[in-house]
Specification:
Two copies of one chain form a homodimer. The model of chain A has no long low-confidence stretch (mean pLDDT 91). Chain A is α/β, with parallel strands linked by helices. In chain A, α8 crosses α9 and α11 crosses α12. The longest helix of chain A is centred in the middle third of the chain and has 17 residues. Chain A has 14 helices and twelve strands. Chains A and B meet through α4, α8, α13 and α14 of A and α4, α8, α13 and α14 of B. The structure holds a DNA duplex.
Chain lengths: 356, 356
DNA sequence: CTGTTAGCGCTTTCAT
DNA sequence: ATGAAAGCGCTAACAG
């Protein structure tokens, strides 16, 4: 039941050549006569040879450096969970002579991101993983990478007209649609909805938020529902100002019973409403980050839509390693499941991690 | 940034011994003087040595056989997804000289399970994975395994007073609780609920179903809700009889608006109700299996509670491999997230699999 | 073009 | 009790 594994030696014997020659055709690095190659290829196929990638990596003894560029993060937030997944997998790579270097930039400052990209243009590395937060910058950088033949993987979001090795992220449109569906379940006839948004969403990051929002609105249209939906524009920077904006708005619009935010910061809204006269407004948001979980548990937030950031980070790096070290391929687009998280299943969601 | 990896050779040099001696202390197989051992152990700790498990497995060249015992399954059902996860990981094991043999038994026939266990008692193997479906049988078999020092891992459910290496499954009580919570969201005052159950749930399998059911009922009690809950007992074997039982029951109880089943066969109920005068009854059930998904999409079923069977199978085998081949440990209890699946996120749920 | 050789990091005889 | 040596499956440099 076991030792029917075919090795390079078996192939060599059966083809009447040496292991060296077999290796040459396996990695077609030339210098093999046509006859030999054809004979070897035939045997390879016939015996259904599968290389032992571990032995291969061991012998290869080549060093790899994978770069990761993500926004600065604090413990427990979305990016830190992606980073944890990356760090976790990086530990499985060290025995293959592969290491990872992580760069951070300021999520709302394109310049800080450009700086990192510029610095990277002076360095050499074998692969890179990053979220295309600022689309213009990322598009340009992707072009550089393609020109240099450096494989890159997107996480979190995607930009068209580029050629990443792979992509891990959520279908933003569908996640917005799903959020609308969930709100609808308990939406009464005269209930109104508030969408909380930042003043001028930096044009560059608009993509993902925009898609979620349009999925959300389309759900109602397509289902012939037309709840009143308010857009409440806040600064996202000035707490006092925001508190004032929100409270004066809600004072005028007494039918608002649901509030949603399409980034991961619904907890800020929850903090404003908590202990206010509007604490009965039910909130919904994105991402199972610690601060959101707090308000999920005290029922300020009714549900969260989540996307397994740890899994994203872990598998993005795994795909890169498979490509670089093991020469394996992976599916181009990996759409993460859109998870529905409420008070009753959040613990099971956060506590499971067979990988850590 | 890279080649600071410490090898056994480095340790040997620094401790002034040979690689062989270092290896002896690493796997404490004796025959080392106390002085040498202490010196080596000091160096090991000082240099923070991490063995290269891949090189180790390669050199070890030992064969492993892992047994898997699961119920017979058909494509697309719960057990087949567990089996897929197992098969997937087994492919990563072949290069470590480890193979997997899968045995099947009839889920509702304890004798067929006993037969497999008995047969296994005459075979030799290095580890085994199975769901303790029949608790008495499993308990006894676990005792045998413990006595023989063969590591075993439970999937799907757990039995007390045994010593498995690890366990992957859902917190059944909480999943029932969650189901009750979800139904409550849209439960109107005079709505009643039907629990569909098999006549005499085989005493042996009662455990998981029982826990789900009590979680379900407790939710209402603890929240001071007291919807009328009906128990509708069907045979589970005789289609015509069941159809008749259900329809006559529902004819008498016109307030029943929700139906739930605590195993994975809510699709059978959906099939009975579809195109009947009771097609407005909303159903809920467990497990994202193909037939359930069908009724989720046509809205006969409102939601499913799911538990990532592929993940269970995959990681159960991974933990076994880590134990056997790499001598790594794993957490004992791994409670899988309790996923909420509705029409709007089911596709994202089933289509994601970076592992396959 | 091809075979031989040394070696990746580790394990396991086998002498000593 | 310990070191030397061979070998796991594969790669790559080097003769020829």
């Amino acid at each position: 039941m076991a030792n029917n594994r075919i090795t390079i030696k078996d192939i060599a014997q059966k083809a009447g050549v040496s292991k060296g020659t077999v290796d040459r055709v396996l990695h077609n690095r030339g210098e093999v006569s046509k006859e030999s190659r054809e004979r070897i290829e035939a045997v390879l196929k016939e015996m259904n040879y599968e290389p032992n990638v571990y032995a291969s990596a061991l012998a290869n003894n080549k060093e790899f450096l994978v770069i990761v560029v993500i926004p600065e993060c604090v413990k427990g937030d979305y990016w830190s969970k992606i980073e944890n997944g990356i760090i976790k997998f990086s530990q499985e790579m060290i025995h293959f002579n592969a290491s990872v270097r992580i760069f951070h930039f300021d999520q709302i400052d394109p310049d800080s991101c450009r700086k990192v990209f510029d610095e990277l243009k002076t360095e050499t590395f074998d692969g890179i993983i990053f979220p295309p937060v600022f689309s213009n910058l990322s598009h340009e950088f992707a072009g550089y990478l393609t020109a240099r033949n450096i494989p890159y993987i997107y996480i979190d979001s995607y930009i068209e007209d580029t050629n990443p090795l792979s992509y891990f992220g959520m279908d933003s449109y569908k996640s917005g649609w799903l959020a609308a569906r969930l709100i609808t379940i308990s939406l009464k006839k005269d209930h109104e909805i508030a969408i909380f948004r930042y003043s001028e969403p930096e044009e560059e990051v608009i993509n993902q938020i925009y898609k979620r929002c349009s999925g959300f609105r389309h759900f109602f249209e397509k289902n012939n529902l037309s709840p009143v939906i308010h857009d409440i524009i806040i600064t996202g920077r000035d707490e006092n100002a925001d508190r004032e904006i929100i409270s004066s708005y809600l004072k005028k619009e007494r039918n608002i019973r649901y509030g949603i935010m399409f980034n991961s910061r619904i907890h800020t809204i929850a903090a404003y409403l908590e202990n206010s006269e509007f604490s009965n407004i039910r909130l919904a948001g994105f991402d199972v980050i610690d601060s959101n979980v707090h308000y999920l548990k005290n029922e300020m937030v009714g549900f969260l839509i989540a996307q397994r950031p740890f899994t994203q980070g872990y598998f993005a790096l795994k795909v890169m390693a498979d490509h670089l070290i093991f020469r394996k391929t992976a599916p181009l687009r990996n759409l993460i499941p859109i998870d529905i998280i409420i008070k009753e299943n959040v613990d099971s969601y956060t506590s499971f991690n067979p990988l850590e």
